[in-house]
Amino acid sequence: MKSSVLGQDELRALESAFGEQLQRQVPLARFTSSRIGGPADYLLPVRSKDELAEAAEALWRIGVPYRVLGGGSNALVADAGYRGVIVLNQARAVRFLDEGESGVWAESGASFGSLGRRAVARGLGGLTWAATVPGTVGGAVVGNAGAHGGDTAGCLKLAEILQQGEGVQQWTPERLQFGYRTSWLKEHPGQRVVLSATFSLTPTDPNQLATEMEAYVEHRRTTQPPGASWGSMFKNPPGDHAGRLIEATGLKGLRRGGAEVSQLHANFFVNTGEATAADAWALLTEVRRRVEERHGVVLELEIECLGQWDDPTTTGADG
Questions:
Q1: CATH number of the domain at 8-89, out of 3.40.50.150, 3.30.465.10, 3.30.43.10, 3.30.565.10?
Q2: What fold is seen in the domain 234-300?
């Protein structure tokens, strides 16, 4: 276990700012969908957008490295853990809007899939595609989550963003510079925090929405593996699908330690029970190498790598 990057002055400032709310040496595995991840130096749970804003401002002021973690569905956390503070986003308030234009406002820690299902139950279309998407509202905004032909960019009205030294602002989709599974926020981690988001919805026949959602749920059940996984490991390259390329390379079922390329969907890597982050990294590296050799395509990670890594080539790693 590597030592904390924090000095005594920073430690005292942290303890003064957060007191007993700050938890030491907390394993992150139970906060990720893959059930993998070493300990964070500090874990700081927040339960509202105001708490999240206050925490971010304090951590910026103290000068401590931190990352916000929501559902942990697209994160590979290093076995060595995270040197700094993981802010666990449990800000989950949701409010449906009826004044003039239909829509929904949600704090960034709210479940994105649940938001889609709740909209369907109210006869509101626009987020039906999200009903089976894992993760949080904040993660969806940062990564431009999408499925079944829909994406966050297509239904987001405004995102409430906290900027270091500049306070809270309302960002439009244009300002967020959405791209395929990315945004300005994803390309510039640590500089802004998503506090909440407002999505535009449209009154729609509830039976139609329910039928669509059931089809999406069934599609997920039959095409994506259950259990602990990272979700989609790689972005789809232009005009193709990462899963098709991996399967065409004969890599379904390939294992490194406890990490395995799913037999059901080749772009899903699963934790068979005892996988480590090192296993996952070795597997994705091998898959990427073989696909490039076979097809001349360099697969780009969709997941983010967080924490302390010995491998200096680890894309997106902090620390």
A1: 3.30.43.10
A2: 3.90.78
Would you call 187 a catalytic residue per the annotation?
no
Active site (annotated) includes residue 232: yes
What is residue 60's predicted lDDT score, i.e. its pLDDT? 94
- Kindly list the distances between the CA atom of residue 293 and the CA atoms of 4, 245, 246, 254, in Å, as whole numbers in the listed order: 40, 11, 11, 16
Its pTM surpasses 0.70:
yes
Instruction: Identify the active-site residue in 118, 181, 256, 288.
Output: 181
Fold of 94-208: 3.30.465
State the Cα–Cα distance between residues 283 and 269, nearest whole angstrom: 9
Backbone dihedral angles phi then psi of residue 178, each to the nearest 5 degrees: -65, 140
Q: Which residue out of 160, 260, 302, 304 is catalytically annotated? A: 302
Mean pLDDT computed over every residue of the chain: 93
Each domain of the chain, given as residue ranges in start order, spans 8-89, 94-208, 234-300
User: Does residue 302 carry a catalytic annotation?
Assistant: yes
Catalytic residue selected from 232, 262, 288, 304: 232
